[in-house]
Write a structure and sequence with these properties.
Layout: H1 2-16, H2 30-34, H3 58-73, H4 77-107, H5 112-140, H6 145-153, H7 171-197, H8 205-225, H9 231-239, H10 246-259, H11 261-264, H12 278-292, H13 294-306, E1 309-310, E2 321-326, E3 331-336, H14 343-361, H15 368-385, H16 392-417, H17 427-441, H18 459-462, H19 467-486, H20 490-498, H21 506-513, H22 523-537, H23 548-552
Parallel strand pairs: 1-3
Antiparallel strand pairs: 2-3
Helix pairs in contact: 1-5, 3-4, 3-5, 4-5, 5-7, 7-8, 8-9, 10-16, 12-13, 12-14, 13-14, 14-15, 15-19, 16-17, 16-19, 19-20
C-alpha cells in the first residue's frame, strides 16, 4: 500500500505545490513515511521572518538523484541510502521554497517578482514529478533493489516501477501538467484583477469561465492518459485516497438536496454584521487554545512566537485562506485575507485546526477528507469555549448548514462539468449547467445570483474535486460538537485524541475515532433535525443592523 500511496502523491505533486495550496506538502516526508525508525521531534523554532527563499535548482536536484542511482548500481547500499537521505532533504527544501513563494505571492498578487518565482516553482514541480519517477524506475533496475526495500522502502515497493525498456520522461504527461499549471496561474492573475473590477459593469467573469473550460479539457486528457475513464475517478483515487464509492457520494448529495436544501432556501446569515479587528480575531483563537490546553496551547504558542500567521487585510492579497506546512522548518503557517467581520474569527479558528493537526503529525499523512475534520471541529468547539459573542452560535450554525448545501451544489456541478462532451464544452454550457444545479439546491434564490458565479470558487481551478471533502468532514465535525454538548469533555477528548491519528482513509478514521459514517441510512434526516433544533435554540437577534449577507453584498464602499 505504501507504493500506491507514493504514486498518488507523485501524480498530485504539482497540485499540492500550486499557487495557494490549502495544505500543501510535497514528497520531502518520504523518508519518514517509509521508515519505521523513530525520529527526533524536537526542532529549533525559526521565525517566519527569518525564513529565506531560494529558487530551487533542478539541475542540482537531478545530480543528487543520479548519485543515489550510481551508488545503488555499484552495490554501495550504505552510500546509496546516505545519498537518498540527502536527496530527500533537498526535496524538503524544494517543497519549502515553493511554499514560501506561494505565501509571498498570495500576500501580494501584484508583486511581479513573487509572481515569477511562484510560476517557476509550480512548473518546476512538474519536472520534479518526472525526476522522482525516473529515479525510482532506475533504482528498481539496480542490484541493490532488494536491500533498499529491506532496509528502507518496504517489500514490493519497486514493483510499480518495473519496466523492460529504458525509462524516458513522459513528455505528454509533462506537457499536460505544465499546461494545467499555466492555466491555474492564469486564473490567479484573473482573480487579482477581479477585486479592482467588481464595481464595473464588465468583471472578467467570461474570461475566468473560459479558463475553467480549458482546465477541464486538459484534466480530462490527463485522466485519459493515465488510464481513467473519467476525471473524477482519477481524482478520487489519486488525489484524495477516498475509501468510499461514487455511488455513496451521489446518494449523500441527493439526500442533502432533499433534506437540507429546503431549510437553506430563504435562510441567510441573519445575525447582524459585527465589525471585527485583527486583534479581536487573534484573541478569539487565543482564548480557544487556552481553553483546550495541552498540544493545542503548545501549537498556538509556537504560531505566536514564530509569527507563523498572516491575518492582515489587503486588497492585493488573494481572497482566501489556507494553511501550509513548511517542511524544512517543521512548522505550519496560516494565511488569511480577512473581510473585517465576525466570520474572520471562525476562519482563523478553522485554519488553526489545520495548524494543530500538522503541528502534531509534522507532515500531512492524512487525506484531505480527514484533515478538514479538525479545522471544522475547531470552529464548532469555539462556540462552546469562547463565550464572548452571543451571536456566534447562530452565525456558525447557519454557516454550517449553508456549507452542506452550497458545497453539495458545487460538488454536483464539478462532477457533471467534467462529463460534458469535449465538443459541447463551452462557457455557455458551464453557465447552463451551473444555473440548473444551483436551482436544484436553492442557490439561485438569493438576490444577485449570476450563472457565472462559479468563477469565484477557487477550488474548481486550484484543487479539483476538493469540495466534497468539506461536506463529509463537516458531518464528522458536527458529531464531535454534538458529543461535547451532550457530555462536556467527550467531544474535546475525541478531538484531542485524534489530532495525531495517522489514519488517512476517511471511513477508517471515523471507525477508529468512534464516529458514524455519513453514508448510513437516515443519517442526513438526523442531521436536518439537529439543525432545526439548534437554530430554534439560537433565534435571530433583534437588531437594526444589516445581516451578515446584507452587509457582505452591500454596495456601501465600507463593506
Amino acid at each position: 500500500m505504501k507504493s500506491r500511496r507514493f504514486l498518488a502523491l507523485l501524480l498530485a505533486l504539482s497540485l499540492l505545490l500550486g499557487a495557494a495550496p490549502p495544505r500543501a506538502n510535497a514528497l520531502g516526508f518520504l523518508e519518514r513515511l517509509f521508515s519505521d525508525e523513530p525520529e527526533e521531534t524536537s526542532y529549533p523554532v525559526i521565525p517566519f521572518s527569518q525564513m529565506e527563499y531560494t529558487r530551487p535548482d533542478l539541475e542540482e536536484l537531478q545530480a543528487m538523484a543520479d548519485k543515489v542511482v550510481d551508488q545503488a548500481q555499484e552495490k554501495n547500499t550504505d552510500q546509496a541510502l546516505d545519498a537518498l537521505y540527502a536527496f530527500y532533504d533537498a526535496i524538503d527544501l524544494f517543497s519549502t521554497n515553493s511554499a514560501l513563494a506561494s505565501i509571498h505571492y498570495n500576500a501580494d498578487l501584484t508583486d511581479e517578482y513573487w509572481a515569477e518565482e511562484n510560476d517557476f516553482c509550480t512548473s518546476a514541480a512538474n519536472e520534479a514529478d518526472q525526476m522522482l519517477y525516473g529515479m525510482y524506475t532506475a533504482l528498481a533496475a539496480t542490484p541493490s533493489r532488494a536491500k533498499l526495500e529491506k532496509r528502507f522502502f518496504g517489500k514490493g515497493f519497486f514493483d510499480d516501477f518495473d519496466t523492460e525498456e529504458d525509462w524516458e520522461p513522459d513528455q505528454e504527461l509533462l506537457a499536460l501538467t505544465n499546461r494545467e499549471t499555466e492555466l491555474i496561474n492564469q486564473y490567479y492573475s484573473q482573480y487579482a484583477r477581479l477585486n479592482s473590477l467588481l464595481g464595473s459593469f464588465f468583471p472578467p467573469y467570461d474570461a475566468m469561465a473560459q479558463t475553467l473550460v480549458d482546465l477541464i479539457q486538459v484534466r480530462n486528457q490527463l485522466a485519459a492518459h493515465l488510464g481513467y475513464d473519467s476525471y473524477d475517478a482519477y481524482a478520487n483515487d489519486n488525489l484524495y485516497d477516498r475509501d468510499y464509492t461514487p455511488q455513496q457520494m451521489a446518494q449523500y448529495l441527493d439526500d442533502i438536496q432533499k433534506k437540507l436544501a429546503p431549510m437553506y432556501i430563504g435562510l441567510s446569515y441573519d445575525v447582524p454584521h459585527r465589525d471585527c479587528s485583527e486583534e479581536e480575531v487573534f484573541a478569539y483563537v487565543a482564548k480557544l487554545a487556552a481553553a483546550l490546553g495541552g498540544n493545542v496551547q503548545d501549537a498556538f504558542q509556537l504560531m505566536e512566537e514564530a509569527g507563523l500567521y498572516d491575518i492582515t487585510q489587503s486588497d492585493n492579497k488573494f481572497d482566501s485562506s489556507f494553511e501550509v506546512y513548511l517542511t524544512s522548518y517543521h512548522e505550519p503557517y496560516i494565511f488569511m485575507n480577512p473581510i473585517n467581520s465576525a466570520m474572520d474569527q471562525l476562519t482563523f479558528a478553522h485554519e488553526f485546526g489545520h495548524f494543530c493537526n500538522d503541528y502534531l503529525l509534522e507532515y500531512n499523512s492524512t487525506s484531505l477528507d480527514v484533515a478538514e475534520i479538525f479545522s471544522q471541529a475547531m470552529e464548532l468547539l469555539s462556540l462552546i469555549y469562547v463565550t464572548d459573542y452571543p451571536d456566534m452560535p447562530r452565525l456558525k450554525m447557519v454557516d454550517s448548514l449553508c456549507l452542506f448545501v452550497e458545497q453539495s451544489c458545487y460538488a454536483r456541478f464539478e462532477e457533471e462539468m467534467y462529463r460534458i462532451p469535449s465538443e459541447e464544452l463551452s462557457v455557455d454550457a458551464l453557465c447552463s449547467l451551473y444555473a440548473r444545479i444551483a436551482q436544484d439546491y436553492g442557490l439561485d434564490t438569493y438576490d444577485g445570483f449570476d450563472s457565472r458565479d462559479f468563477v469565484t470558487i477557487p477550488h474548481f481551478y486550484t484543487d479539483p474535486m476538493y469540495v466534497f471533502s468539506y461536506i463529509i468532514s463537516n458531518d464528522a465535525a458536527m458529531q464531535i460538537y454534538q458529543m461535547e454538548v451532550a457530555q462536556p469533555g467527550s467531544g474535546v477528548k475525541c478531538f484531542l485524541d485524534n489530532l495525531d491519528n495517522p489514519e488517512g482513509y476517511f471511513l477508517a478514521f471515523l471507525e477508529s475515532a468512534g464516529l458514524e459514517s455519513p453514508f448510513e441510512e437516515g443519517h442526513v434526516d438526523a442531521l436536518a433535525q439537529t439543525f432545526q433544533q439548534i437554530l430554534q435554540e439560537n433565534p435571530p437577534m433583534a437588531t437594526q443592523e444589516p445581516s451578515f449577507l446584507e452587509w457582505l453584498f452591500s454596495d456601501d464602499e465600507a463593506a
